[in-house]
Design brief:
Helix content is about 40%, strand content about 20%. It has about 240 residues and is α/β, with parallel strands linked by helices. The longest helix has 23 residues, at about 105-130. The chain starts with a strand and ends in a 5-residue tail after the last strand.
């Protein structure tokens, strides 16, 4: 069965362009032109991925993304923004977007990003099917339950986006190893082409805010200058 993609944009020309290219790639595409309409479709119908424009009438893409995550909707979100500045990208990721692209964009790259995100989700689901339902990873005061998309720090539940949790799980599973940014981008975001490694840095920064007592002196996620990151157990 074809995966269903929800394209949310108030510019008909962009919707038409994305719809044509995504359907050509084998996806079923539905569209929405406002934030409230996008939420209604995403929360009431079966959607496998949302391509979400930042600038929307009535309710912008940030609010749509935030409300989706508040409803515990784990639909992957690829955010589109006409603003080529770091702040909007970071805010989008903070509100639960899985990835972002800046307009003008190549329809072929959008399709490639969609394929990469869905491939990663599919691999995650297949892995879950072949492992016990109550998997748990514990490192120091950090406990992660990947099958339930839950994590605690010092016994308190943390609010993590799906991507933050997946990154945390990958770091924990490779504890003690130096992981390059490109490796994390490939493994967690499933990119098979050159992507923006700043996505990794932003997510690492978010994780540090939630599991480090002092983010200036991290005990869990260490920066390895010029290479990437290493996850360590401060209690060992």
């Amino acid at each position: 069965m074809a995966k269903r993609i929800l394209v949310v944009d108030d510019e008909p020309s962009i919707v038409t362009l994305l719809k044509y290219n995504l359907e050509k790639a084998g996806y079923e595409v539905v569209a929405a032109s406002t934030g409230p309409e996008a939420l209604e479709v995403a929360l009431q119908e079966t959607i496998d991925l949302m391509v979400l424009d930042l600038m929307l009438p009535d309710m912008d893409g940030m609010d749509v993304c935030r409300k989706m995550r508040q409803q515990q909707a784990l639909v992957p979100i690829l955010m589109l923004t006409a603003k080529d500045d770091e702040l909007n990208k970071i805010i989008g990721l903070e509100n639960g977007a899985d990835d972002y692209m800046t307009k003008p964009f190549s329809p072929r790259e959008v399709t490639a990003r969609v394929k990469a995100i869905l491939r990663r989700v599919n691999q995650s689901e297949q892995t879950t099917e072949h492992k016990p339902k109550e998997r748990r990873y514990t490192v120091g005061d950090v406990v992660v339950y990947p099958d339930n998309y839950e994590a605690t720090f010092k016994g308190e539940y943390m609010t993590l986006t799906p991507k933050e949790l997946e990154l945390l799980v990958y770091l924990i599973k490779h504890k003690g190893r130096v992981l390059k940014r490109e490796q994390l981008l490939s493994a967690v975001w499933n990119y098979d082409f050159a992507g923006d490694t700043r996505i990794v840095d932003v997510h690492v920064s978010h994780l540090r805010e939630k599991i480090e007592i002092d983010t200036r002196k991290p005990r869990y996620i260490k920066t390895i200058r010029g290479l990437g990151y290493k996850f360590e157990d401060p209690t060992s």
